[in-house]
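Quick one:
INPUT:
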């Protein structure tokens, strides 16, 4: 077996290689869809989280997405400028701010959910409904071991 054969065999048996390629493709599809709303993928993710879990701190949002503070701040700045979220002082900390969705931000929820539905349909187009459900179950199980999900 040549070095090239060994490398090819390693790559084609790598979960991470497939996940990374899939993540890049999903990012492209999401960028296409989100362009209509003038949202970046990061802004979209933060807005969806704030709609689901209103009143998170910026630091909490950053931990949830494993994003550096400057990236969270920039994304929230953009959402705030557009009137989709607001920052309010945290009642228990002078340094922290709570991020809340505005009515305009919440009004985007159905359209953004439709974006997710379209991208998910594109992703699972070659799978039967049963296999698509199994795929989602596997992703949720695998991810839950590596990250925190839900509001907290």
């Amino acid at each position: 077996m040549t070095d090239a054969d060994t490398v090819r065999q390693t790559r084609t048996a790598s979960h991470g290689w497939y996940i990374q390629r899939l993540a890049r493709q999903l990012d492209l599809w999401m960028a296409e869809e989100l362009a209509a709303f003038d949202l970046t993928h990061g802004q979209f993710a933060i807005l969806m989280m704030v709609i689901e879990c209103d009143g998170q701190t910026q630091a909490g949002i950053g931990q949830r997405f494993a994003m550096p503070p400057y990236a969270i701040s920039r994304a929230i700045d953009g959402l705030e400028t557009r009137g989709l979220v607001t920052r309010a002082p945290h009642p228990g900390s002078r340094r922290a701010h709570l991020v809340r969705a505005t009515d305009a931000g919440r009004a985007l929820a159905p359209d953004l959910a439709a974006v997710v539905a379209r991208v998910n349909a594109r992703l699972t187009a070659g799978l039967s409904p049963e296999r698509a459900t199994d795929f989602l179950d596997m992703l949720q199980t695998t991810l839950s071991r590596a990250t925190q999900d839900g509001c907290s």
